[in-house]
Amino acid sequence: MSAAERLHNAAPVQDLSSVPARALRIGVSRAADPAVALAEIGQQLRDASPSFILLLAPGAMDPDALAAALPGALPDVAIFGSTTAGQITQQGYETDALMALAFSSDHFRVASKCFPLLAPVSMADIVDATRRLSAQFQTAPGHNRLALIFTDGLSKQEDMLVAALETALGDVPVFGGSAGDGLRFRRTSVLHAGQFHRNAALLLLIETDLDFCGLGFDHFQPTDKYAVVTHAIPEERLVLELNGSPAAQEYARLVGVPVNDLSPIIFAENPMLVRNQSNYHVRGIQQSQFGDGLTLLSAIDDGLVLRLGKGKEILRTLETGLSVADEQSGTPDFILGFDCYLRKLEIAHKGLADAASDCLRRHRVVGFNTYGEQHLGVHVNQTFVGIAFFRPTGKHSL
Fold this sequence. Notes:
Elongation Factor Tu (Ef-tu), domain 3, eight-stranded antiparallel beta sheet, 10 helices, 28 strands, 39% strand
């Protein structure tokens, strides 16, 4: 029986947040100075034996200064990373924390590839480079393989990129998040080979002897209000007209607010949905442009039919989505999570941040808030995407 077949939704798990994960060590600093923050994290990881480290940087921290302070600060292994729109630490949602996730060398192996100059993306080049990386990364007996992708969240290239990765990797599941920059939308980048790279993507091909399962859920359902994209600039993800009217004005009419009241929280609570076979995926709205246009966080084109989304109870869907268990291994050792910044914004606006953080903490979620999420070959928005890694059962016990 496969790991996926053994996986089932469970009742809310007992609070295991005080019990350290066995396959992951976590270092966190809230110091504003990169050198000080790295020194604090280095102390927390001083006796760790990681295969690699994933470094998640707050938007307020200068990535170049962080890269300059990195040599010698952390264990001498490959260090990858991303800028973020917020962090998910052992305490839940945070905004100004620098976090290092040290993946145990007893349970993880990694190969990496940085794709520079994404815009415009060459699907053929991505497919060829990914296949070469996969062929060179020899499979270890008894290990499972997955891929993580971290992308410049302002590149507007994620849709093409994940499609290329799905073509190249076949049955290997791909998960990830787009790098963020708080709510500034000025600079997003990924860390590879000691430098933060803009207009780039970072691919991590990972093998693990742990069972794992992917998670992906949102809290929206379609309404009967719809709009057809009648004028768009696809390469900019910019919609100029909906239903033949200026896009911002028509969207405001559908939502039922004056166009001057459009704001990030309105966008967060009222996204547009696109149908893909029997499923609906969220097309999050980043901001209004020039008073009439709307910039989206995913691919858009003329003729696309969008439905206005209506939210269900966000905390209930979070609890249900994270309540997974494995019949052999029990509750997850940890969940690596990529959660859209618009979800965090909605949660904070409704006064639910503490309750959401408690839920994330109880379910051992660590990760970051994104400008978009990658889930099994699709780029989505306002979605929680994650990987639940289950506890070692007699394999290389830590």
